[in-house]
Amino acid sequence: IDEEGECSLDDGGSCEAQKNGSRRRQPKCADKEEECGTWAKAGECTNNPNYMLVNCPISCDSCPEPLDLPEEILDLLDRVSNYGPYQRVEGVDSEKTIDVVRKTVAYMENEIYGEDASHELSEEILEDARGVALINQLETNRAAIGECEANKAYMKVKCAPSCQTCDMIDIDNRCPPLDESVRPGLLPGELNSMFERIVETAPGNQTGEVEIASGMTNYTVHVHSRPEPQIEKGQQPIISKAVDKEQPPWVITFENFLTEDECTHMIEQGRKAEYERSEDVGEVQADGSYDSVRSTGRTSENAWCSFRDGCRNDTIVELVHDRIAKVTGIGANHSEDFQILKYEPGQFYRQHHDYIEHQRDRRCGPRVLTFFLYLSDVEEGGATNFPKLGIAVKPKVGRALLWPSVLNSEPRNKDGRTDHEAQDVIAGVKYGANAWIHLHDYQAAQEEGCT
Ligand SMILES: O=C(O)CCC(=O)C(=O)O
Ligand SMILES: [Fe+2]
């Protein structure tokens, strides 16, 4: 402390503490395992921070700076360290954040680890509450600014301790089974009748004048593959798996499904949401979600057109979702957010199927249809090829491609014949968009973290 009574040296706060006359102590910061040092040397602090920063803070050099804080808060921070890494609480929301920390610690000590705790969460899930959903700075801050309510699906699982929702980490608690009385997007037999109706009613396929309904375009439909109608000696179409397997699946394209302006607008929306390297579905996590993994079979970039970036509720984007819903007869709530794709020369997506097995038994149900939109012309390459069907569709601005991932007789089950690939773009840039349509309400399932 200098002559004017001010602290002239930056000594990490010790002088300030002396000056204010407050007592100073460091939160108890200790390694909890003997192997901490060895693990830290092996790089585990960066490879496995969820575990290491909680259990080996000394070896990871993550002990907090000496703090000039009241005893009650220091004590609180020590108790937090039983469940997550040390945190700094600072900034404009620090009062609210400290409140969240108080509630969180009490919740963990009593309702989760207390002697009278009545939950039935497994060890694995509790581990997850400390790992994936550990109490960290970011999550308490988010909880403090009301994110537990505003961003429910994510927060209740990924920030469960701070939102006091650890029971929600268990997918069985979070996602009760779907009400059997809810009508699925397709009943057995409706896949064929849907495609037949789409072909028959395409405005561009009509002879004579047609009125284009509001929000719709004057598209024409081309059939690349279809099952021959199998009509019982009377009138009813035969709905059977045997017939499904004998007959080729539907693949149709739409010309002028989108206007050029709509295509440009969607590409721009993708830019706002930011194109990033595309990923595939990875491994199941303790909370029942699946992580995403980079794969060598898919080298494009994509952007999700979600509410988060104001994309899904963009006027044109909504118009396109509604157009697809009118054509398929399946509500836009059954559709995932558009995944807007960008392929530069040399980029591709190797042979795969869009059906995701684990979703068959989830609230959203499986993907039943892919409505694929071509948003740009491509100079050379970039066709969507169906190797098992001998069909290749070239990109063209405004064109759309529709195919099923499931069987007409069993809309929950995969039709393995609609494997496809995005061939290498050779010259130009290809933009496209996937709308994956599910058997059930995908948007509702997504909001609950149940996909
Ligand atoms: O880009 C294409 O033509 C198809 C893309 C595709 O199959 C996918 O994203 O699942
Ligand atoms: Fe695909």
From TrEMBL:
Q: Where is this region: Disordered?
A: 275-295
Named cofactor requirement(s): L-ascorbate
Q: Name one GO cellular component term.
A: endoplasmic reticulum
Localization recorded for this chain is: Endomembrane system; Membrane
Which ranges carry the Fe2OG dioxygenase domain?
334-439
Q: Which UniProt keywords apply?
A: Dioxygenase, Iron, Membrane, Metal-binding, Oxidoreductase, Signal, Transmembrane, Transmembrane helix
Keyword Transmembrane recorded: yes
SMART domains named among the record's database cross-references: P4Hc, ShKT
- Residue ranges constituting the ShKT domain according to the UniProt record: 29-63
Give the transmembrane ranges.
none
The UniProt entry, under InterPro entries, shows: Oxoglu/Fe-dep_dioxygenase_dom, P4HA-like, Pro_4_hyd_alph, Pro_4_hyd_alph_FE2OG_OXY, ShKT_dom
The keyword Calcium is annotated on this UniProt entry:
no
Alphabetical list of Gene3D superfamilies matching this protein: q2cbj1_9rhob like domain (2.60.120.620)
Q: How does it sit in the membrane?
A: Single-pass membrane protein
| PANTHER family found in the cross-reference section | FE2OG DIOXYGENASE DOMAIN-CONTAINING PROTEIN, PROLYL 4-HYDROXYLASE ALPHA SUBUNIT
Q: What is this protein called?
A: Fe2OG dioxygenase domain-containing protein
